[in-house]
Design a protein that fits this description.
Chain lengths: 288, 165
């Protein structure tokens, strides 16, 4: 029997449910958003490689009667957001230089200041000509922009979610001057690290714990069907990073292989690339 | 910094304050300084869109390397990576490097007038207009034609030998 992430909103808590999905530009994948919204009570969809026209799916979402969904975007970054949160609750604040990252604020009454930063991103892949070193260099630029925004907003209630096109163990994800994502809460909760005369902030990367088949759900977020000699097949490109000061407000984390009614997997028990996307959705909740 | 600030002032003037330019100075790793130029739209909840970064040594304004969307095409990156790894050609040999005020002005002009930046400016002005008209119900619209920023943008030339950006 499939085990679905429980929706804690019924308990009356201030929970915001966020789902990220790289749709591989396939409009068929959009058809599953209403089921996902209804099954998991999704407040915010962050989408990469979207089909251009989202109006039909917004109509379908609104026909569910579980809220009024809208697109919240000021310009056209590479990731887009659909939300049923009110206009003052969820605001697009910043787009990075190459449009790879968009940052939204979410009103968070239980926090001080009462705000969370949600950074959605879609970074370049190795197939686009980048190697590990250039991906790490790119990550460093993204982090500089995000850190400046945190300083401007005067908090570190930050979550990053997106298609990093890197594994949790790639240099761009772990390097001190890149995302600096650490695999345990204990490591992440240490003070900012000093390196070459500068302080570098840390992230907790819970995706490490979802690799492989010792935890429920798919073994990764992306599947590569290739016969090259070095192939892990399951990749964890779609990740969530959390600032350590915010860990206690982070709740639930799942890679979804179904939308509650339909499987998102193909016959080979990997993401249905042919009909939907070669990526699976990642869902998490914030108690704010 | 001065050249970028002049561009920010020009932007505010041309758009009647609908679209502003903001220049920020950030300390980088080692001896590096980064100047960031962003579009700022007060009418859209003070939304910001970073347009370019300029990196130079703390002790010297030049050479300065400009990072912008037009310099980040995948083709350019492939060629750049290949040349760096095989021929030892450094980043500084490329079209986004300035060794003088005049070269810097030309690069900034190229970035500001590039399609991604013009498109972004046009889109932001249009969205801001909608909000402002909705709030005020009346008032003239700021022209949101893509050519406004490119046509009217004037990069003020600096005196040769000036150190200020």
């Amino acid at each position: 029997m499939l085990s679905l992430p429980q929706n804690p909103q019924a308990e009356g808590r201030g929970v915001v449910t966020i789902l990220f999905w790289n749709l591989s530009k396939n409009s068929n994948a959009l058809i599953h958003l209403p089921c996902l919204a209804q099954t998991h009570s999704v407040d915010v969809f962050i989408l990469a490689e979207c089909p251009k026209d989202l109006k039909p799916v917004i109509t379908d979402l609104n026909d569910l009667g579980i809220g009024t969904y809208r697109e919240e975007v000021k310009a056209e970054p590479k990731v887009r957001a659909l939300t049923r949160l009110a206009t003052k609750e969820f605001i697009h604040r910043f787009t990075s230089l190459g449009k790879e990252m968009a940052v939204w604020t979410v009103r968070a009454p239980r926090l001080n200041p009462p705000e969370t930063l949600i950074a959605g991103l879609h970074l370049p892949s190795k197939h686009g000509g980048m190697n590990e070193a250039s991906q790490a260099s790119f990550a460093a630029k993204i982090i500089e922009e995000l850190s400046r925004l945190e300083d401007e907003r005067k908090h570190r209630n930050t979550v990053i979610v997106g298609d990093f096109n890197m594994h949790p163990y790639d240099p761009g994800m772990t390097s001190v001057d890149a995302f600096h994502g650490l695999m345990t809460k204990t490591l992440a909760e240490k003070t900012d690290r000093h390196y070459k005369g500068r302080k570098y902030r840390r992230f907790y990367n819970p995706m490490w714990s979802l690799l492989g088949d010792r935890t429920p759900g798919p073994a990764g977020s992306h599947y590569w069907r290739s016969s090259v000699p070095h192939n892990t097949h399951w990749q964890m490109f779609d990740q969530v990073l959390i600032r350590p000061s915010f860990i206690d407000h982070f709740d639930d984390l799942h890679i979804l292989g179904h939308d509650g009614n339909h499987s998102l997997m193909g016959k080979d028990d990997a993401p249905d690339k042919k009909h939907l996307s070669d990526h699976l959705p990642v869902l998490f909740r914030l108690d704010i | 910094m001065t050249i970028l600030r002049a561009q920010a002032v020009a932007l505010a003037t041309q758009t009647g304050g609908v679209l502003l330019g903001d220049v920020r100075r950030e300390e980088g790793e080692g001896n590096k300084i980064t100047l960031a130029f962003e579009f700022l739209v007060p009418a859209l909840d003070n939304y910001r869109r970073r347009i370019l970064n300029v990196v130079h040594d703390k002790d010297s304004a030049y050479p300065a390397v400009v990072d912008a969307e037009i310099f980040r095409s995948s083709t350019a990156n492939v060629i750049k990576t290949f040349l760096e790894e095989t021929a030892g050609v450094s980043e500084g040999k490329f079209a986004n490097r300035a060794d003088s005020d005049q070269e810097f002005i030309e690069i900034i002009k190229k970035v500001i007038q590039s399609p991604p930046v013009l498109s972004s400016a046009s889109s932001l002005i249009a969205r801001a207009n909608e909000i402002l008209v909705e709030k005020k119900k009346i008032g003239p619209r700021i022209e949101s034609n893509e050519n406004v920023i490119g046509r009217k943008a004037k990069i003020e030339p600096r005196r040769i030998g000036s150190r200020k950006k």
